[in-house]
Amino acid sequence: MCVSSVECERSFSVQNRLKVKYRSSLKPERLDILLKISMLGPDIQHFDPVPAVTRWRRVKKRRTGRLKEDYKPRKKAKTC
């Protein structure tokens, strides 16, 4: 059995994709979870997000975004 660093290199590659500039402050626990999902989870083509989203919404009351039609334009401030 050959020993290689392929799996290690793959995990560093996934980590670099996850820890981009705007997400560089991820806590180690959250990064570990995202790494496991990225490496061990199903392909995106075979993933059904409905159960995950349903559970996420059920865990606590969350503010859901309003529809675009619900927004009313702001009144413009008068300028001199």
Automatic annotation (TrEMBL):
Concerning Pfam families, the annotation shows: Dimer_Tnp_hAT
Give the domain of life: Eukaryota
User: Which SUPFAM superfamilies does this entry report, sorted A to Z?
Assistant: Ribonuclease H-like
The UniProt entry, under InterPro entries, shows: HATC_C_dom, RNaseH-like_sf
Instruction: Name one molecular function that GO assigns to this entry.
Output: protein dimerization activity
Q: Which residues form the HAT C-terminal dimerisation domain?
A: 3-35
What's the protein here called? HAT C-terminal dimerisation domain-containing protein
The species is: Dreissena polymorpha (Zebra mussel)
